[in-house]
Structures are given as structure tokens and as C-alpha cells.
């Protein structure tokens, strides 16, 4: 077990460790915010252009698969409340090597996602101010979020609470306005009439065939990254046995409302072939129907969504570095907490790496190309982390059948569904080979795992010793 996972820090100062200051409302909204990512607002234009109306099936399939992943993670976290995150149960059930690869890859996932958010934030700011230097929006956002995260975890919870509320309000409003436009038969300045028949009138549900449908999966997968964030926050959540199941079980409803209904409305009000692949369809919708002020408001919403994702990334990376260092799988400096009980060193280091996003903008020049390559690398690494969670679940079922029997939150389908979801992840990786930009990301991703393999021997001995003392 990992009952003394934070022993070294706690012995020095009993009150100086991560605090359970996130309340139920924080956890619920963090879970919702994690399910409404930058990929939905920024990337759904590209998925619609690739797949047409069939994009909703892609989101439904991915959402269903990830629900089972979340149920597996939920059962594992609640099987032993000394597990502070999925890194802990991977470390315990699969060994220090799995803990090392999971923790550092998850850190890398969020750093890369943060870089994508920096790219997206720059694009949104350029909607209002095209002449702003490329380096200014991302730099300002990184420094602001770092400053806020250095204060308290409760402040992080409050920021995510309000960020998520903005996103929910925007999507619900978009759905409501779309329903009214459809009901009155609104005709846009381009001559397109809002009608349900737009879903099949322009080439059917699969206008680009099976290939187009499959190509949509890359950006669609990225829209869901962060869905596991609720597992990272459980270490600082009050009453996780009540709040965690509630947050996870609401995932199917979120997928239906925030993804499927929103995209159905967009493609009903404006035909899918009028959605620009390089722009946010949420902004584009209001531009097409001739409401530029509303477009600015939606641009503000998608800007807060990207800031929310970057905020979650900064939070997660700091906690991951803290957990890795505490388990002797990372530099000792990251195991130190500030007087506010936040991992200040890890937060500062992660934010320094985020400035790569600013550099990328100058290299690529095209915001959407940079966004696609970066999100592909992030998606591949998230799939690796998600896969290890499922492998750990299968290991848990073999080693601790009594814990499973006592569980108040059993995973539906058990081990069989683990294999189904793992097979789905293999399918998604195969899809990444179909397009040049996603293939580029797929080819770069293994470099990270080679680097980890070279670094692990430096931590192996001390991690094994630490594990012996904590069992």
C-alpha cells in the first residue's frame, strides 16, 4: 500500500501538506470544466469539416468509452483513500516504473495541453486585436494563472468554478438561441435557412464517407482531455466518497448536452459545409447569423475556456511533480510546499515550460497547424496514461478481489470493458496515421518515452527503497 506516501513531508510538519479544501461544488464544476475543453470550442470546426454531421457520433463514442475509464479510476481511488491520484495506484499496483512513466507523462500531457491553450488564447485575442504581438497574450495568461495558483488551492477551485459556469451558460444559451432560430426558420446573410434538414441535406450524415468520419477522432479525442482531472483533485476534496461518484456519473449527461446538442445546433442553424475549419464554430455561428456583438461574447467564452484549461494544467502539473518527488521519482525540490500548502516549485517550473507555446507560434505562423500538431502529441500521451489506469484496474481486480467486493462504486463491465476501451484506444492511434498533421504528432510522441526510459534508471533505486518503507 501507499499509506505513508507523504510521510517525509508530514513528519517535518504535520499540518504542512496538501489540504482537503475543495468542496462539492468545486469538484462538480471542475469535472464539468474538464469535460468541456478547448478542443470543443477551438477544434470542433475542423472535426465538422472533416466528418460533417457524423461528428456527433464520434463525440458520443469517445464519451462512452471514457465514461468506463472514469468508473475504473473512481473505483480504484475509493478502494483506498490513501491513493491521492492515479499515479499513486499505478505506483502501488504496477510498480515504481509505472508510477514514474504515468506521473511524468501526465505532467507532460498537461504541459503540452497548456502549450495548445497558449496557442488558442493567442488566436482568440487576435479576433479582437489582430495587431497584438504574438508573444503578449500567452505570456500574460501564464504569469496571471501562476500568480493565482501560488496562493491557495481553494482559489484554484473558485477560479475553475466560475470558468466552468461561464462555459455552461454559453453552451446552454447557444442551444436555446439555436432552437429559437430553427423554430422561426431564420435565414442567414449567406442565404442558408436554419432547419433540421441541414443535418442530412448536404451529402447525408457521412458526406466524406468513413474516412472523413475516422479523421474527426483526433481533435474529438483532444476535446475530452482533462476529463480525468477530477481524479487528481480528489486528494484535496472534502468527502471524496460522496463527491467523486457524483462527478463521474454525470459524465454521460455532460457529453449529451455540451457536445452533441451544441454541435447539432451549430450544424442545424448553419449547414456543416459553411463551418470554417480554422475558426471556432461557436464564434462563426453568430457571425453567420449577423450578430457580431454576440460573436464577441462567445469569443470571450472560448477565451475563458482556454484559460480554464491552462489553469487546470498548471494546477495538475504542480501536483504531479509534488507527488513524483514525494515518491522519490523526481527532483527533491518539487516535494516542498509553500506556506500556503501549494507546490510552488513545481508550479513555477511547469509555467516556465509553457513558454514553448509562444515560441511555437513564431515557428509555425499558422495557429491551427500549431494547434493540431500539439494536440496530437497531447492526445497520444493522454491515451498512454488512460491505458495504464485500465491496466492498473485489471491488476487490482486480480490482487485485491476483497476490495472489489466491498466497493461502493464498482465499474460496470469490469475487466471485459477494460479490454474494450483499450482496443478503442488502439483504434484511435491507428486513425492518427491517416492525416499528415496528426501523423507528424504521432511520429514526435515516442521521443518523450525514450527520454523517460533514459531518465528512469537515475530514480529506480531510491524509488524501490521508498516503496519498501511505505508498504
List keywords for this structure.
single chain; disordered N terminus; globular; 471 residues
Total strands: the figure is 0
Unreliable segments (pLDDT under 50, ≥5 consecutive)? Answer: 1-16
Termini gap: 5 Å
Number of domains: 1
Computed over alpha carbons, the radius of gyration is 22 Å
Report strand %.
Answer: under 5%
The top level CATH class name: Mainly Alpha
What does this 3D model show about the protein?
- The protein is an all-alpha fold.
- The protein has a single domain, classed as Up-down Bundle (Amino acid/polyamine transporter I).
- 73% of the residues lie in helices and 0% in strands.
- It is built from 23 helices and no strands.
- α4 (55-79) packs across α18 (367-399), α8 (153-184) crosses α13 (251-269) and α8 packs antiparallel against α15.
- The longest helix has 35 residues, at 292-326.
- It is globular.
- It starts with 6 loop residues before the first helix and ends with a helix.
- The model is unreliable at 1-16 (pLDDT under 50).
Describe the structure concisely for a colleague.
This protein has 23 helices and no strands. The chain has 471 residues and is an all-alpha fold.
Note the topology.
Layout: H1 7-12, H2 24-35, H3 38-51, H4 55-79, H5 86-94, H6 96-128, H7 135-149, H8 153-184, H9 209-215, H10 217-223, H11 229-233, H12 240-249, H13 251-269, H14 281-288, H15 292-326, H16 344-354, H17 356-364, H18 367-399, H19 401-406, H20 414-431, H21 436-444, H22 446-455, H23 457-469
Helix pairs in contact: 2-8, 2-12, 3-10, 4-12, 4-13, 4-18, 4-20, 5-6, 5-18, 6-7, 6-15, 6-16, 6-17, 6-18, 6-22, 7-15, 7-16, 8-13, 8-15, 10-18, 14-15, 15-16, 18-20, 18-21
